[in-house]
Automatic annotation (TrEMBL), chains A, B:
Its EC number is 2.1.1.-. Keywords: Methyltransferase, Transferase. It comes from Profundibacter amoris. Belongs to the trimethylamine methyltransferase family. It comes from the Bacteria. This is Methyltransferase.
Amino acid sequence: MASPPQRRGRRGGKRSSEAGQNPHMHVPYINRKIPPYDLLDEESLIRIEQGAERILAEIGIEFRDDPETVRLFKQAGGKVTGVCATAWNIKFEPGLIRDLLKTAPPQFIQHARNPARSVQIGGDATVSAPAYGSPFVMDLDKGRRYGTMLDFENFVKLAQSSPWLHHSGGTICEPTDIPVNKRHLDMVYAHMRLSDRAFLGSITAPERAEDSIEMCRILFGADFVEQNCVIMGNFNSTSPLIWDGVSTRGIRAYAAANQGSIHLPFLLGGAVAPLTMAGAIAQNLAESMVGCALTQLVRPGAPTVLASFLVTLAMRSGSPTFGTPEPATGSLVMGQLARRLNLPLRNAGSFTTSKLPDGQAMQQSMMSMMSAIQSGGNYILHSAGFLDGLLSMSYEKFIMDTDVCGALHAYLNGVKVNDDTLGFDALAENGPGEHMFGCAHTMRHYKTAYWDSGFTDDLPFETWSESGGEDGMMRANRQWKKRLADYQAPPLDVAKDDALKEFIAKKKASVEDAWY
Amino acid sequence: MASPPQRRGRRGGKRSSEAGQNPHMHVPYINRKIPPYDLLDEESLIRIEQGAERILAEIGIEFRDDPETVRLFKQAGGKVTGVCATAWNIKFEPGLIRDLLKTAPPQFIQHARNPARSVQIGGDATVSAPAYGSPFVMDLDKGRRYGTMLDFENFVKLAQSSPWLHHSGGTICEPTDIPVNKRHLDMVYAHMRLSDRAFLGSITAPERAEDSIEMCRILFGADFVEQNCVIMGNFNSTSPLIWDGVSTRGIRAYAAANQGSIHLPFLLGGAVAPLTMAGAIAQNLAESMVGCALTQLVRPGAPTVLASFLVTLAMRSGSPTFGTPEPATGSLVMGQLARRLNLPLRNAGSFTTSKLPDGQAMQQSMMSMMSAIQSGGNYILHSAGFLDGLLSMSYEKFIMDTDVCGALHAYLNGVKVNDDTLGFDALAENGPGEHMFGCAHTMRHYKTAYWDSGFTDDLPFETWSESGGEDGMMRANRQWKKRLADYQAPPLDVAKDDALKEFIAKKKASVEDAWY
C-alpha cells in the first residue's frame, strides 16, 4: 500500500497558541454547570452497595506489613484474623466502614503555591491532571523509550503551559535515569519549581511520602501545611482485596499531616475483579472505601478521595483494554455511588491501548473521558498524554488531550438560557432567509459563544491540502516543541528554592543509590 | 520532520471479522437500557419552548413555491401574509403547531424488506445509519475525489456488512457520474438490491420522492406500503425560517403515502441561527416542528421525526466546525425537547472537520456521537463515514465509526445488577490476592462480558511493533477492502428485481439527462 497521498506535508495551518480565543474560559478549575448523569436506579445502586458491604463482612480485606493499620481498624470494630506473621484479614460488619467515612470532608481545597491556582476537590468541581505512572515516553521523532528526568520536566512544563489542565499531577512518567530511592525528590521539586499548580507527592515508600510532605513544609510553611491540604498521594490497593503496608503506611503519613489521599483499586476484570461490571464496581467501592476510612481513623476530617479504575480484558490475548464501553458505564455508576457517600471522586481519564496518537487513541480516550465528565468525577488524573495502555506517555497525545480538556470547559458550561442567549432579536433583525453575520447579537457574542480549539484543523480541504495536508499527529508534534520552546518558569522565592535544594541534596547524600 | 518510525509497516494484527466475538449483541436496532441524560432544568426548557413559540408567532415562517402547503396551514389557523407572488409568511399563535403534532405517532416501525431487520423509530430505540450527502469520497490510496455510483454501491455494501449499523441510510455519497435527475433511481435501487435493511428515499424533487415511493410499492406491494412505513425522506428547511416548496412538496408526498419524513434545519450558528446555543435550539425546534406539523395536516398519524443539526462556526475563518462542545450540549437539550413533544428524534452523528481519519476526526466524532446517544436520539444519521465537514465520505473512517457503533451496543446495555453479575462468588472462590482467570464466574461470562472490538489494536507494544506498527488508518484501509471482497448480496426475488429494473429503465428513458 502506498503512503497516504494526503500525508506528504511538513507545514500546515498555523495557530497562535493553545489558548486560542478562549481567555474568558480560563479558570483554576471547572465549576460544572450541568448535572451529572444517573445511569442506575436506586434499587440497583442499593444492591451494589450491599454487595460491597457483603465483601467486607464475609470475605474481608487483607492487610500486610502494617500492624498499626490493623490496630486502628481492630479498635474501630473490625474482626481481625491472622493470616501469617505479617498479614491479617479484617472483616467489617455492614455499615461499619461507611460510618467511619462520615467525618471525611465532602470537598476541600488543595492549595497551590500560586493561590490563584488552588483547586477544589469535590462538589461541583472538575480538576484535570496529566496521566500518571508510565515507564516509557513516546514522540513521533524518537519513538518509544524509557522516560527520563528530562521527559518528566518537559511534561510538567507542557502541563503548566496549558490553560486547560488544573493540576500538575504526580509521576507523569517514571524518570528512570534517577535512582529509585531518590527520584521522588527530583519529581516533587520539578512540580514545585516548574509549575505553580497543585500536585501529587510520592507514595512508593512511607519515607518518600514523608519527604514529599516535608518539602511542602519548606515551600508553604509548616503551620500552613498543618492546617491546609497542599499535597495528595495517589495510593493503590493490591486487588483483589489487599491493602499492602507500603500503601497503608503512606496513607497514614499523608492523613497524619492533614494532607489528601486518593484510594485507587486497579480493577482488571477477569483477572483481579469479577468480569461483570456490577461485581467490579462493588469490589471497587469496598476497596476504595476502606482506604478512605483509614485516613479518618488516623485523623478525622483528613481530606480523602474515593477512586475508580475499571479495566476490561481482551479475553483472546489476556491484554488489558482501555477506553471500552463497559468501564465507561461502570464509571458513571461510580459517580452515583460517590455522591451517595458524599465523597470526592477520582475517575477515569483519557484511556487507550493504541500505540500511536491516532483515531483509535482519541476514540477510546473520548469514550473514557466523557464518562469521567458525565459521572461528575472531581479529580481526573490521566487527563492528558495516556497512550499504550498506560505504559507510555505521549508528547503528541498530550497536546491532543489538553485540547479536549479545553473543550470540556465549554461542555461543562452547559446551555445558558436567558433573553439574551435566546437571541430572538438575531432572528427578528432581518427576518426569514437573511444571514446573521453582522447582526447586533452576533457582534455581541462572536468572541465568546464558541470554544475555539488551538489544535483542530477546521480549514477547507483545499487550504489544508495546499498548506501541507498534515494529520493531527504532525500538528501535535510541532505544537509540543513550540510550547516547550515558549515555556517560562513561574517565579519562585529564591530562599525557598535554596532551602528545597538543600533538603534534596542532604537527603540524596544520606543514602546510597538504589536502582530497584 | 522524519516519518514517524512506528509507521513503516504494511501488515499487522489480524482480526477475523468486524463482528468479533459479539454475536450475542446482534440486534436489528438497539433498545436502550439506560436513561437519556437531562441537561437542562424544567424552567429553562419551558423558556426555550416559549422562545420557539415566539419565533413562530411574531416572526413566522416563510413558505415558497407551494400554495397547497400555505392553504393547509391557513386552514389550520395560520395567519398568512403574501411576501411576493410565490412566497408567503405564516405566523402561528402560540400552541397551534404543538397541537397539530398531537396526532403524530411517538414511535413507529420502518419496515425492511427482510422483516428481521425492520427498525423501530422512537421510544427507547436507537437506529444507526451511514453519513449522508457528501459530494466527495476519500480513501488513503486515491485521496479525495467526486463520488460515483460505484462508491455509493460500495458504501451500501460496507453498511450491509456491518452488524453495528441498523439502517442503510440515503444519499451516502452523491453519485456524480449519474445525471442529477436520474441518480435517485439508481440510489434507491442500490439500497433495495445490495442491502436488506430499511433506507431513505429521494427528496431533491417532489417527482423523485414519488419515484422512491413507487419503487417501494413494487418491492413491498402497494397495499403494504399504504398501511406501513417502508421508506423515509430526510428534508431540510432553508434556515433561517424558510420552508421551500421543493421540501414541502416532498414532505407532502411522503406523508400522503403514509411514509416517514425527517425535518431537519441545518443551523450554522452566527450565519443562519443565533450564535448562542439557546437561541439556535429554539429556532431548531420551531423549524422542525413546523415540518412535522405539515405531515399531520396531510395525513394525521403519518410517521414524522423531529431533527436537529447544530453547527458552530470558526469565527476567524467563517468555516463551519463540527464535533465541538456547544452542539453536543445543544443536542442533549434537543433530546429533552423531543421527549416533551413525544416525537422521535434524529440527532447528531459522528461529525468532524478533519480531512483525515486521524485523532482529531475520532475525537470530534465521539464528542458528537456521545451526545446523540446520551440525548436519547432515535435515528442517528451520519453514524459512519463522515469526514471533512460533511464534504467527504471516508472509506477508512466508515470502518472506525462502525466499530464505535458496535461499542455503543454495549454502552447502551448499561450495567446489569443481579446476584450473578455482582459476582460475589468470583471473589469468594479464592479470596484476597488470588487472580480470577479460572474461576467459575469468569468461565461463565468471558465470552459475553465485554465488547470485543473488530478494529482496535490492544496488543502489547512489542507485538504490535513487530507485526508492522500500523496506525488506525492503515488497519481501516485493509479492513474495508477485505469487507468489500467478502460482501455477499442478500437474496432478492427475481420478479421484483426485474420489475424494479423495468421501472427504472422506463423512467430514465422518459426524460433527457440533466446535469444540474
